[in-house]
TrEMBL record:
Top-rank taxon: Bacteria
PANTHER family the record matches: DNA PROTECTION DURING STARVATION PROTEIN (PTHR42932:SF3), GENERAL STRESS PROTEIN 20U (PTHR42932)
Lineage, uppermost ranks: Bacteria, Pseudomonadati, Pseudomonadota, Alphaproteobacteria, Hyphomicrobiales
Protein name: Starvation-inducible DNA-binding protein
DNA-binding in keyword set: yes
Pfam families hit by this protein: Ferritin
Length: 167
């Protein structure tokens, strides 16, 4: 970020104007940080889960981790296509994420499932806001990307919550 809080952009022939690209880069930095955070929250759960249905939940967390890694790459590449500089380190992600820190002492599968569901739900809510922001700004491609990520996050939330929902 530049000193004025606006994203510094690399020269590009991208057709969107610089102000719009700068605001979308800022929006995407937040979602990149969140994507990296949720990727490793999910891996933290994968590594440390214990209890009933261990193998099924262990494998689910690994699948969710792989899915969110794709979101990281897609968001970072859109951000850089707009002329931005992706801030994808763990330190940068911790500054940009919208998620609460993941507890390091969780063990039981139900606790991990519920805590991850909280994170996925929170990001889903932020994605909806981001979709609206990109739409209002007229950046159809960023809107489409965030919509695609949002669909996946909502599906993952369904997978997580289905473990503890009942009729």
């Amino acid at each position: 970020m530049a000193k004025n809080g606006k994203a510094k952009l690399h020269p590009t022939k991208h057709p969107l104007n610089a102000n719009l690209r700068g605001s979308m880069v800022e929006l995407l930095q937040k979602h990149l940080g969140t994507a990296i955070d949720i990727t490793y929250q999910t891996k933290q759960a994968h590594w440390n889960v214990k209890g009933m249905n261990f193998i099924a939940v262990h494998k689910l967390f690994d699948e969710l981790h792989e899915t969110t890694e794709d979101y990281v790459d897609n968001i970072a590449e859109r951000l850089t296509a707009l002329g931005g500089q992706a801030h994808g380190t763990v330190q940068a992600s911790s500054e940009n994420t919208v998620l609460d820190p993941y507890p390091l002492d969780l063990v039981k599968s139900e606790d991990h499932l519920k805590r991850l569901a909280d994170s996925y739900a929170k990001w889903s809510s932020e994605l909806i806001k981001g979709i609206e922001e990109a739409s209002e700004a007229g950046d159809d491609l960023t809107e489409d990307l965030l919509t695609e990520v949002g669909r996946g996050i909502d599906e993952s939330l369904y997978f997580l919550e289905s473990h503890f929902q009942s009729a």
